[in-house]
């Protein structure tokens, strides 16, 4: 099998003239120890370890547990601590449902030029793995 696979597409503009386009595909290789292998309500599996409490997850770091108890308790102080890790983006997994904190609590991230997304925890887990595979400096703040 060829180690450099290409997808070749032939498209016609209606007059039997064609254009060939090639796109190289590469297999994702995630080298982080902290790849999320499974998520279910109240539990995240990372490697061979099961976590049943809130945590902070980065490509090379795991903060276990994260002292935040609920999304309603999130404050600027919590997000200042996250900004200190200097990620490219923070994914805030808000629990089983998407719940938005007051916009003012995100000021430390905005001031540091760090992007953020708020989503249910199951979506944050999937998005974390995608960004991890893209070798992005992502921080997932996950509320179970």
Derived structural class: alpha+beta
According to CATH, the fold-level topology is Hypothetical Protein Mth938, Chain: A
Beta strand %: 25-35%
The helix/strand series, from N terminus to C terminus, equals EEEEEEEHEHEHE
Let me know the average pLDDT. Answer: 85
The total of beta strands comes to: 10
Biggest sheet statistics: 5 strands, mixed
So, CATH architecture? 3-Layer(aba) Sandwich
Order of strands in the sheet with most strands? 7-6-10-8-9
CATH superfamily: MTH938-like
Tell me the helix content: 10-25%
Specify Rg, calculated over alpha carbons.
19 Å
**Morphology call:** globular
CATH class: Alpha Beta
Low-confidence stretches: 1-12, 20-27
Indicate how many domains the architecture comprises.
1
| Number of alpha- plus pi-helical segments | 3
Distance between the termini: 43 Å
């Amino acid at each position: 099998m060829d180690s450099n696979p290409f997808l070749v597409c032939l498209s016609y503009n209606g007059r039997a003239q064609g254009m060939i386009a090639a796109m190289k595909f590469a297999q994702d290789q995630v080298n982080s120890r902290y790849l999320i292998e499974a998520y279910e309500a109240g539990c995240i599996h990372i490697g061979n370890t099961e976590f049943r409490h809130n945590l902070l997850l980065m490509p090379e770091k795991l903060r276990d547990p994260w002292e935040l108890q609920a999304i309603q308790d999130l404050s600027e102080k919590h997000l200042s601590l996250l900004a200190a890790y200097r990620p490219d983006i923070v994914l805030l997994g808000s629990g089983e449902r998407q719940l938005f904190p007051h916009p003012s609590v995100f000021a430390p991230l905005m001031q540091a030029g760090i992007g953020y997304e708020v989503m249910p925890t199951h979506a944050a887990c999937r998005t974390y793995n995608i960004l991890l595979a893209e070798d992005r400096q992502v921080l997932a703040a996950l509320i179970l």
